[in-house]
Amino acid sequence: MKVKIKCWNGVATWLWVANDENCGICRMAFNGCCPDCKVPGDDCPLVWGQCSHCFHMHCILKWLNAQQVQQHCPMCRQEWKFKE
Amino acid sequence: MAAAAVRDGDPGPTQELLVAWNTVSTGLVPPAALGLVRPRKRAAGPRGVPGIRPWGSLGSPGSPSLASPAASPPLHPFPTCPRLSAPFPSPLCVPSLRSSALQASSRTSGAVPPKEEELRAAVEVLRGHGLHSVLEEWFVEVLQNDLQANISLEFWNAISQHENYADEPQCLLLLLDAFGLLESRLDPYLHSLELLEKWTRLGLLMGAGAQGLREKVHTTLRGVLFFSTPRTFQEMIQRLYGRFLRVYMQSKRKGEGGTDPELEGELDSRYARRRYYRLLQSPLCAGCGSDKQQCWCRQALEQFHQLSQVLHRLSLLERVSAEAVTTTLHQVTRERMEDRCRGEYERSFLREFHKWIERVVGWLGKVFLQDGPARPASPEAGSTLRRWRCHVQRWFYGIYAGLRIEELFSIVRDFPDSRPAIEDLKYCLERTDQRQQLLLSLKAALETRLLHPGVNTCDIITLYISAIKALRVLDPSMVILEVACEPIRRYLRTREDTVRQIVAGLTGDSDGTGDLAVELSKTDPASLETGQDSEDDSGEPEDWVPDPVDADPGKSSSRRRSSDIISLLVSIYGSKDLFINEYRSLLADRLLHQFSFSPEREIRNVELLKLRFGEAPMHFCEVMLKDMADSRRINANIREEDEKRPAEEQPPFGVYAVILSSEFWPPFKDEKLEVPEDIREALEVYCRKYEKLKAMRTLSWKHTLGLVTMDVELADRTLSVAVTPVQAVVLLYFQDQASWTLEELSKVVKMPVALLRRRMSVWLQQGVLREEPAGTFSVVEEERPQDRDSMVLIDSDEESDSGGGGVAARRVVPDLTGLCPQLFWTYIQAMLTNLESLSLERIYSMLRMFVVTGPALAEIDLQELQGFLQKKVRDQQLVYAAGVYRLPKSCS
Lengths: 84, 892
Fold this sequence. Notes:
- The complex is a heterodimer.
- Chain A has one helix at residues 57-66; strands spanning 2-16, 46-48, 54-56.
- Chain A has a two-stranded antiparallel ribbon.
- In chain A, strand 2 (46-48) and strand 3 (54-56) form a beta hairpin.
- The radius of gyration of chain A is 18 Å and the shape is elongated.
- Chain A is built from 1 helix and 3 strands; from the N terminus they run E-E-E-H.
- Chain A is α+β, with helices and mostly antiparallel strands.
- Chain A has one domain (1-83): Herpes Virus-1 (2-Layer Sandwich), CATH 3.30.40.10.
- Chain B is built from 42 helices and 9 strands.
- In chain B, strand 2 (697-713) and strand 3 (718-723) form a beta hairpin.
- Chain B is mainly alpha-helical.
- Among the domains of chain B are: 11-19 and 115-228, no CATH class; 298-372 and 381-431, no CATH class; 433-531 and 551-574, no CATH class; 707-799, Arc Repressor Mutant, subunit A; 818-886, Winged helix-like DNA-binding domain superfamily/Winged helix DNA-binding domain (Arc Repressor Mutant, subunit A).
- In chain B, helix 2 (13-28) packs across helix 8 (116-128), helix 10 (168-202) runs parallel beside helix 15 (297-313) and helix 20 (415-429) packs across helix 22.
- The interface between A and B is large, with 28 and 58 residues.
- Strand 1 of chain A pairs parallel with strand 1 of chain B, so a sheet runs across the interface.
- Chain B: Pathway: Protein modification; protein ubiquitination.
- Chain B: This is Anaphase-promoting complex subunit 2.
- Chain B: InterPro entries: ANAPC2, ANAPC2_C, Cullin-like_AB, Cullin_homology, Cullin_homology_sf, TPR_ANAPC2, WH-like_DNA-bd_sf, WH_DNA-bd_sf.
- Chain B: One of its GO terms (molecular function) is ubiquitin protein ligase binding.
- Chain B: Keywords: Cell cycle, Cell division, Differentiation, Mitosis, Neurogenesis, Phosphoprotein, Ubl conjugation pathway.
């Protein structure tokens, strides 16, 4: 017997490669979106800090904007720097 | 002159009084009545009265035949009146009076009754003696006695002859004769009554008012005459009046140039035309019912006219005919209604019946002698006729509404076509008090005809939708709908596929409830988000109509009025979340299992639903649709990349993925699966391409979903199939090793044994694998003859599928359900072998109970199954009769 596959239509879910499930700020799932967004994925991306923590981009930006003096990661309190 | 004698002090006042009394008494009542007092044997007399004679030859009071009682002159002028007997000794005891009494009576017993002046003089005498006060009372008394003893018996005797006459013309003649006889007997009394009235007017008599006396006489007449009416008499009268009406109606038709004014207007209806020609062809006259040659319509009309006149003169018209007329009218109306309206909902009958009623009222005018220029319509007569018209109309509304109420279920079922019937019913209901009857009857009809397990949910919903539309026309306040359809809503709540059906209807997926899709796309929908709570915000205050009494006071009227079909359906469960969730999973199914969905339609549906359910709940669905679009783009992207590469780097087969945002889709079943090396590689390659495209993101494959098209090349045949990834993977393992035990395979595939066995059943079905011995599966390289049967089935199945001709083929999209119906087929065959015959619903529910072979299979719905079964019927593998499927004899 020989099976010849002509076409494989698969179904998959995408997920962020992150070390956590939920955003530490909004507590929403990374694979979902932040409370201000409607559409996940490209429209509501994640960003990583050099401290290896990651958040919804919109969430961390909001957080950073709220910081008066120095910008810290809300999780580890290290200075926040975007991971390049 | 007699009065003058009294005043002059005439020596014989008593005698004078007696003479006067005799004059008066013999003048006022026929001699026969006065003879009454004598021996009671007279009571047997009427038996001897000559029977019926031809009209016109009836004896008058003076005629010899009737003179027999008068032959012995009345000797007792004071019949049984106790008050009179004391002051006035019987004339028999006063010999001196006898001669004058005889003289007076002999004068009257001749053909000539005493002249009016004489009588008047006599009355003056009586008045002089103060006796005028008893005169009227005495008159009534005599009349009553005469009626009791003679006239009544005579009349009924004549009537009882009718038993010998079977046919109507004779009956009519007899009736006419009998009443003629009666009239001739009563004629003297009526004449005297007029005199008495006149005297009363002149002040000679005290009277209780002229009207009083006349009324009394008539009451006595009616009372005595119809004290006990034989049934047969009523029946005869009724039959004759029925005939009269028909003859009259017919004569009206003929009267207008041979065309039928009633039929003319409605000859467009096929039914009416047929009826009209039948009438023309019939050898019988439509009026009198006898042969056209012997039609007696004309005579009948004349005779009826005579009869009415006689009855009218006797003031018996109402008494004799009212009941018969009423019954006849009721009967005729009912017959006509049954004949024309029953089952006919597509046109209004009100106008036609109004016209007809006007003609019936014309007939009534004839019966009650109130038409014709000769008789200027007195206000009283007008009012009688008005009363009758009112009665006929009310009766008509009542039974018409009754008929429609009885048929309401069917009317509702046919709704858009049966609108005229609904509007008729509405008109009638406003005039009759039949609301409760309607509610009860409709509820009962719903219970018996709709709300039982034999009806498809989708049909129930369809009927409910029609009911909403129809009853809204009937009752804009929607109270009838609310009350009568409560059982439907309650029942739908108990059906588990209700939500699915409604949602399917909303998205235009099912055939039965297509209305919903239309309804959904209507503009300006009532939002479910904000029920308009403010009570009187809309409309002119002038147009305000209170709610019917049976409305539920707990609910606001405007909300009830404004609710539309979709909001009513959605509110069956009291919450819209259920519907949104159902819609979501239905959408997910469609998107993932039917790769041939139409994005435009889905987007449109979601947009329309957003208008109803609000933005937020539909958000998930929007993301789902966006995922589909994104996936397509990504696939195209990757494909483009692939094509740029050299041929040797091309993947061995095309991999496409639908990439979902997991948070927004309904949860998926997670099945573990160990994919063979080459496949895993291909999938990982795809995954890497994705990761390159979307930074920091990766894919997780869901093997339970998807579709793999492949060719299975066996020694003697090649199968081209479309299966789920799991099924494909399982078969792939058999490529390298032709035989596996279930346990071994289970370890390799990393799938529980039971699940694996279910997945493999497809291949057993296809004849690719066989289980021999139990628990060991091996590839069937060469087909054995006993397997051929199933192979033939598959071939024919695929052929008709690819042909795409029939409804079924269109519905069971070949590459999405693939082998699934085939899998069902074994189950169905087994079921039918065991249970002989099953209905569609039964098969469906049993399949749902037993066949749990994965999401793709659970997907098949009732319509698909039906399509599949119908195809089997066409291929003569099944027999369908009387709503059940069975296997053909040879097959079992």
